[in-house]
Amino acid sequence: METVCDLQTHGLKFVQDDRFFPFGTDGVELANFVSGTPRDRAIDFGCGTGIVPVLLAGKKGIPTVGVEIQTAVAELAERNARLNNLPVEILNMRVQELRNVYSAGSFTIVTCNPPYRRAGSGEKSMTEEVRIARHEVSLTLSDVLDAAAWLLPTGGKFYTVHITERLDEVISGAIKKRLTPKVLQILRPGGKKPHIFLLKCIKDGKQGLEVLPERDVLGSTGLDYPE
């Protein structure tokens, strides 16, 4: 069943369908973490029903491409962009195939709220849509970093959100792809122990990582689903 929710910012509306993985606080936090202007060009990997592209374009005026592998989910993301009359394009394709569409350095900003869990960890009871959203069955961390490094020019910005248990993997993988970690924000969902983090990287940036104070966030992070 579909419902239309008020995002409570800039008059934005958003259609959700209970067949699909719902957006959570992590997606909203990721979009808010991004700094940019209408002169930027952003692309969001695994955009789901479009929350990050809608917020980037709707709040910050950043023209954004969303990439989503699941056809029905991509169609809903397109509807959400049209509902708000935003400069958002949705591509129904694999992130791994973006090299066939765009040349190197085509975007100034890359964002990704990726599947947090490795393939094979507690997938059996889930729907296919939730399994793809939560587990690395169609998109791995390595795929994300490869594509981000290709699409960003020197000085381009990569933003991601992930679980803290994989922080070392994300940082080391980013460095190998010349995505220098620059800003780290640890989040505590609902007052729990530090659980997720936001990371900003700069392509070929200078070394030096700023760690922001930990803070609490309220609401679902998409981690409330059973393993």
Task: Summarize the helices and strands and which ones pair or pack.
Blueprint lengths: L1 E5 L6 E5 L7 H9 L8 E4 L5 H10 L3 E4 L3 H13 L4 E4 L17 E4 L15 H7 L6 H11 L5 E7 L3 H10 L2 E11 L6 E8 L6 E8 L10
Parallel strand pairs: 3-4, 3-6, 4-5, 6-7, 8-10
Antiparallel strand pairs: 1-2, 7-9, 8-9
Helix pairs in contact: 1-2
What report would you give on this structure?
By secondary structure, this protein is of the alpha/beta class. The protein has six helices and ten strands; from the N terminus they run ββαβαβαββααβαβββ. The chain has helices at residues 25-33, 51-60, 71-83, 128-134, 141-151, 167-176, and strands spanning 2-6, 13-17, 42-45, 64-67, 88-91, 109-112, 157-163, 179-189, 196-203, 210-217. The strands form two sheets. It has an eight-stranded mixed beta sheet with strand order 5-4-3-6-7-9-8-10, sandwiched between helices. A two-stranded antiparallel sheet has the order 1-2. Helix 1 runs parallel beside helix 2 (51-60). The protein is globular. Mean pLDDT is 90; it is low at 221-227.
